[in-house]
Amino acid sequence: MIQTVPETRSTSADLLARLAAGERIAEGYWLVADRQTGGRGRQGRSWLDAPGNFMGSTVVHLSPQDPAPPSLSFVAALAVYEVVLARIGNPREVQLKWPNDVLLGGAKFCGLLLEREGGSAVIGIGVNLAEAPDVADRHTRTLAEYGPAPDRDAFAAELASQFDLELGRWRQYGLEPILSRWLAAAHPLGSALSVHEPSGTRVSGAFDGLEPDGALRLRLADGTVRVIHAGDVLLEGG
Amino acid sequence: MAENKAVSGRGPGMTIDEKLVRQLADVLADTGLTEIEVEEGDRRIRVSRAAVAAPAQQIMAQPMAAQAPPPSAQPAAPAEPDHSNAIKSPMVGTVYLAPEPGADDFVKVGDQVKAGDTLLIVEAMKVMNPITAPSAGVVKQILVENAQPVEFDQPMIVVG
Question: Number of folded domains in chain A?
């Protein structure tokens, strides 16, 4: 079920507050806003919206049998990837970047943020369907550069359906096939990456695949492998 | 109690009045005082005991310590702080003390928290995991720094 509201501060903040208040929100429910006045990104960054773009959040209730919750990042990224790829057609134009960025023509056009609330996780997704807001120092894109802007409600329905499918695969078949598909759609092994770690340090190296839990493997110049669980990843030259 | 007491007397040709010493020792025990000194003419008697029972234990422990101690009993370097009651990280990731850069920390040492209050966040794979207080209490210790990597099960914060 997809509920659409004209305006809210943040669809994710709304769902987190409702969960914290004890509301039982069924999986498959999406809260979609026409406008967000306080869209959020990682580490307090804002997510800029624009008319016609998709901004929505959904809920996953975690059980002990599920793969580790952080791996939901890959589930959400694959859902967006599949929906976008179906519209773009050319697999070269759509690429995944660790852990849950989906790039269009090498540039950012969507944002995903996952937040836990007790035994649940709220997945917030923003996708530039019609417009690419100006972001300082960052090249952004929109699906409208590749053809007519997708209808927001149709896109929401496709994304909800694809997310449900990917979530079911994650639960039934585990993380490994999810990561294999993610790797096939990501920048190739050996790609030059630099990672801004939360502590402020920056490390550069070559993409060396993923750990079984999804952590990023970065091969440094001295041959050692650095395993990264959190950080901003930049594709060098990308 | 005799081992707890030291008896000193001063005075020429003094003979120890054992009865008086015993009486004074009884006064010590009854009153909880640690030292009594009485003076009569050129005779002065002081009866004292060291603080409570700890010295007795030391006296008893010393002969044992003098024997070859078992290796495990050797005095060790300062013991690791006991973090057994600390809240531990449920995953490998990065810890944040504040909701976003520049914002106030969720909690600081000395804060009163209630069950369910967010204490910090651990990020893994761009999933934000709030770590909440399991029960009401006071923040005793914060064992991590903002934006530092944390291992699975690493003690992060103590609420007691």
Answer: 2
pLDDT tens digit sequence for B45-89: 776 765 444 444 444 444 444 455 455 545 555 556 677 789 999
For residue A99, is the peptide bond before it cis, meaning its omega torsion is within 30 degrees of 0? Answer: yes
pTM for the complete prediction?
Answer: 0.77
- Average confidence (pLDDT) over A120-141: 88
The answer to whether residues A212 and A114 belong to one domain is no
Q: How far, in Å, CA of B88 to CA of A20, rounded?
A: 22
Residue A208 shares a structural domain with residue A179: no
Q: Quick count: other Cβ atoms within 10 Å of Cβ A199?
A: 14
Note the ipTM here.
0.89
Question: Hey, are the CB atoms on B128 and A114 less than 8 Å from each other?
Answer: yes
The stretches of chain B forming alpha helices (DSSP H) are: 18-31, 54-66
Query: Do residue A178 and residue A212 come from a single domain?
Result: no
Helix (H) or strand (E) holding B150: strand B149-150
Count how many Cα atoms sit within 13 Å of the Cα of residue A64 in the half-sphere of its side chain: 0
Best of B89, B95, B100, B126 to mutate (most A CBs within 10 Å, chain A): B126
Q: Which domain holds residue A19?
A: 2-185
**CATH for B87-159?**
2.40.50.100
- SS3 of B46, please? strand
What is the rounded CA–CA span in Å between residue A59 and residue A124?
A: 9
Q: Pick from B125, B128, B129, B152 the residue to mutate for testing the A interface (most A CBs within 10 Å).
A: B125
Could you tell me if A132 and A89 lie in one domain? Answer: yes
Mean per-residue pLDDT, A3-32: 96
A25 & A75 share domain? yes
Domain spans of chain B, in order of start: 6-48, 87-159
Are residues A201 and A163 both part of a single domain?
Answer: no
